[in-house]
Every structure is written in structure tokens, then in C-alpha cells.
Amino acid sequence: MRFLEGIKKGLAKTRQELLGRIERTIRGRELDEEALEEIEEALILSDCGPETVQRIMGRIRERWKRGELNREGEIKEVVREEIEEILSKVDGPLRTDTFRPFVILTVGVNGVGKTTTVAKLAFRLLKEGRSVLLGACDTFRAAAREQLEVIARRLGVPLVKQKEGSDPAAVAFDAWKACLARQMDVLILDTAGRLHTRANLMEEMKKIKRVLAKEGGGPHEVLLVLDATQGQNAIVQARTFHEALGVTGLVVSKLDGTAKGGFLLPIASSLGIPVRFLGVGEGLEDLIPFESSAFSRALLSVDEEG
């Protein structure tokens, strides 16, 4: 099944780090305090975050003291159950049929794979039978607009752009008007992500939101792209963007390139923002919907039943 294969592929490095350490720790031996400390270290190294690690280890120690845990499979199942319970709070597929046009404001710092994610999302929506228009709101980097032009041509979708240095909010408004005029289903806005001018960047994003909202143009989804390879730094980014813009959904990119996939757990427990998609490769088809049960099972190498 393509869906499960994608999650297993994306979590391969994280699974090797976390599961490998747990298996090496407990295989052929009874659970003791030293083994518990090694399991805790494995969770920490997967960037699960201190609160999450404390929660999982608390459950393991509680059941160990009651004599309920000894075998490898029992311990993995406890870890899986806790991870799934935490992540179940951020299950939430993206629905684009509630407004027309449905406006998606895509945000994130430079280098996280934002424009690539826009391409993958557009490709996915097209396959679902939705019509898509792209808006090039990063008016400061010529390379960003050029990349989006290539994507638009490749996918055969219209693109609205303006000259370098134009007001990004004006581009967003023009793109929304074009979407209305053409009676299209979804507008995806690609935006700038300049870290060194974070305050100005946030004001720029807020202005785009205000202009669209004033005309009744959403945005209906503020989609934050996070680079999984950044681990704990991605959590800081999520908090910053959420406080400024009210993020409504997350896309985790480059999941296949890191052993830090556990960073989703502290984001889920502290911010509770729905995770929409996982980026698990370079191809247009390598954007898969997030599902907490499949994620936790793939992370701990538990086969999906049925």
C-alpha cells in the first residue's frame, strides 16, 4: 500500500535510531534500571523532547514496577501507544472543498522546501480533480519566482506574479481575483522566508492575511512547512509562526533525510496544530497525508493489521 510504504520510507532513519537502540538495549536481557536509562537516551536522540520522553518513560516505569513489562515487544508496544495518543491530537486531513476558491497561504523559513511543497501539494490536488492557481508572493528572490514558473509550466497550472520588489500582499490579492474570475477551486500562495528579517517577514505575512480577509478571500489555511532535519529548531519556528499568524496546518518536509522525526511529538503536545502532510522524498508524489496510527506503527516497525 503506497500510503504505508511512504510513511515507512520517510521514517526509516528515525526508526533505525530509535528502534535500533531499544532493540540493542533489551534484546536477551531483563529490563532493569540501566536498560531503562538507555531507552530514555534513545528517545532523547530522536528529538522527542523532554516532556514527551518523561511521559513515555513514566508509563514504562509504572508498568515495569507492576511486573507487566519484560519482553521487547511489550516495551515497543507501550512506546507506540504513547506516541499514537500524543499524535492523535493533531490528526486532521486538509479539506479544500469548504470554500471556493480555497486559499492556502504557505509559509516557512528559506530552505525548508516550501516551494517544492507547493509543487507537491498542487500535484496532489490536481490528481484529486481540483483546479489550482499559484501565486508568487516571494517578490524578493528572483530564484523563487523562477522556480515557481517552472513548476507551473510542468503542472500546466496558471501562475500570478509581479516584478521584483512588488508588494507581496498585492500579488496575493491579484492571484485571488484571478482565481475568482476563472472560477478555480484552490489558490496556493508561495511566500518569502527571510530569517534575518524575521520581524519584517511576519508583518509581511500579516498584511497578506489582512488584505485577503478584508475582501473575503481567506486565507482558509495557513500552512507552515517545517524541515524535519532541523529537529528542535523546527519547534521554535513553529511556535514563532503560530504566535504571529495562527498556523492552521503543518507540512513536515525532508522526513526521509533525518533521524529526528520524533520532533513532531513536542509540537503536537505543546501547540496542537494539525499535521496535514509528510514530505518523504523528492518526487511530486512524495507528499503523503499524516495519520497518527500509521506514523506510530511505522516508527516502531509494528505491522498494520488488515
Number of helices: 12
Radius of gyration: 21 Å
Architecture per CATH nomenclature, i.e. the level-2 architecture of the largest domain? 3-Layer(aba) Sandwich
The name of the CATH superfamily of the largest domain reads: P-loop containing nucleotide triphosphate hydrolases
State which percent range the strand residues make up: 5-15%
Portion of residues in helices?
Answer: 40-55%
CATH top-level class of the largest domain:
Alpha Beta
Order of helices and strands: HHHHHEHEHEHEHEHEHEEH
Q: How many domains is the backbone divided into?
A: 2
> Whole-Å distance between the termini?
11 Å
Record the strand order, biggest sheet: 3-2-4-1-5-6-7-8
Task: Give me the count of strands.
Answer: 8
Contiguous uncertain segments of 5+ residues = none
Provide the residue-averaged pLDDT: 88
What profile does the largest beta sheet have?
8 strands, mixed
Shape: elongated
Helix vs. strand class: alpha/beta
CATH topology of the largest domain: Rossmann fold
